């Protein structure tokens, strides 16, 4: 097994999470999927219903709320 270096230990002590593992607008209940309109500066695939603007999946704010997953009940 490989030992963690000083940077990895400092990151673990701080509780650092990678963007792909951290909560963000991609998992937020306020983010709604949308299709870009085609303008050169229209890059956002998510729309924030709280702020009314486009957001990226990795961004986050103080109003982040976890999106509830639909229950799949099998008879």
What does this protein structure show overall?
A 3-stranded antiparallel beta sheet has the order 1-2-3, with no helix packed on it. The protein has a domain at 23-63. The protein has one helix spanning 6-14, and strands at residues 31-33, 46-48, 54-55. By secondary structure, the chain is low in regular secondary structure. It contains 1 helix and 3 strands; from the N terminus they run αβββ. It is 12% helix and 11% strand.
In short:
It contains one helix and three strands. The chain is largely without helices or strands. The protein has a three-stranded antiparallel sheet with strand order 1-2-3, with no helix packed on it.
**Average pLDDT over all residues:** 80
Distance between the termini: 45 Å
Largest sheet: 3 strands, antiparallel
Radius of gyration: 17 Å
Output the strand order for the largest sheet: 1-2-3
Which terms summarize this structure?
single chain; 75 residues; little secondary structure; extended
Question: What topology does this entry show?
Answer:
Layout: H1 6-14, E1 31-33, E2 46-48, E3 54-55
Antiparallel strand pairs: 1-2, 2-3
């Amino acid at each position: 097994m490989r030992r963690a270096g000083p940077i990895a230990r400092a990151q673990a002590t701080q509780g650092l999470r990678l963007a792909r593992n951290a909560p963000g607008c991609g998992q937020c209940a306020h983010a709604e999927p949308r299709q870009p309109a085609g303008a050169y500066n229209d890059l956002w695939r998510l729309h924030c219903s709280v702020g009314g603007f486009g957001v990226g999946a990795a961004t986050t704010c103080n109003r982040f709320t976890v999106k509830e997953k639909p229950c799949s009940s099998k008879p």
